Input
Amino acid sequence: QVQLVESGGGLVQPGGSLRLSCAASGSIFSTNVMGWYRQAPGKERELVAAITSGGTINYADPVKGRFTISRDNAKNTVYLQMNSLKPEDTDVYYCNFRVLGFRTNYWGQGTQVTVSS
Output
């Protein structure tokens, strides 16, 4: 089992910034993917950004140029730096962990990001 603990969400004005953190613990395998997803009410959970343990990164088009994903492998922690936030970024953000070669996904508890004036 893998446990994911998220932090860093909150309320920010349009154009502002937030940094989300997600720390993984438990049965951590060396080769894995950690990422961030967001989910609006009544909609499917969608990818925001993902990064492998080797440093390969994938961003969703709406956040390219504004968000930056990074990780600290020694701490098993992934970060999402969110700049130039827009009201449409308002959502619950979920951390995800998956071992490469396996189909089981682990999810964080979710952290609320609200962008409003």
